[in-house]
Amino acid sequence: MTKYRDLLKAVGSRIVGDQEAKLPVGPLSNRLSRPPGKRSDPEFQQVTAYIRKETHQAVKIELLKNGRQKFSELVEGLLQQWLNAYS
Questions:
Q1: Burial grade of 60 (CB within 10 A; 0-12, 13-18, 19 or more)
Q2: Alpha carbon distance 73, 79 (integer Å)
Q3: d(CA 77, CA 46)
Q4: What is the spatial distance between Cα 15 and Cα 6, in angstroms, rounded to a whole number?
Q5: Burial level of 59, CB count in 10 A (0-12/13-18/19+)?
Q6: What is the DSSP string of the chain?
Q7: For 32-49, what is each residue's pLDDT tens digit?
Q8: Residues of the chain with confidence (pLDDT) below 50
Q9: What backbone torsions phi and psi does residue 22 show, to the nearest 5 degrees?
């Protein structure tokens, strides 16, 4: 037997002699998955901005304290306020 026998058993494989035989897996639709996120939503665009590390860390700490808003939601809200002020 191989040294990985216990690991293969734990992940749902059968060992026949020295060979591994995988157990059948159901269709993908039966598996649990995460709901679609912003990355796959055509209404959202991923962007990159460079900000100072200290600023980013301080913002993350404040967001964790408040526990309500995500970083991307904060950035979008601030950009929307800026647009409203200048349009």
A1: exposed
A2: 10
A3: 15
A4: 10
A5: middle
A6: --TTHHHHHHTTEEEETTEEEEPP---GGGS--PPP-GGG-TT---------HHHHHHHHHHHHHH-S--HHHHHHHHHHHHHHHH-
A7: 778 888 888 999 999 999
A8: none
A9: -75, 140
Identity at 84, one-letter amino acid code = N
Mutual angle of helices 71-86 and 53-66, in 10-degree steps: 100
Structure tokens at 86: 């200048």
Q: What angle do CA 74, 79, 80 make, to 5 degrees?
A: 100
Cα angle value 84/86/87 (rounded, 5°) = 70
Contacts of 42-48 with C-beta under 8 Å, sequence gap 24+, read none
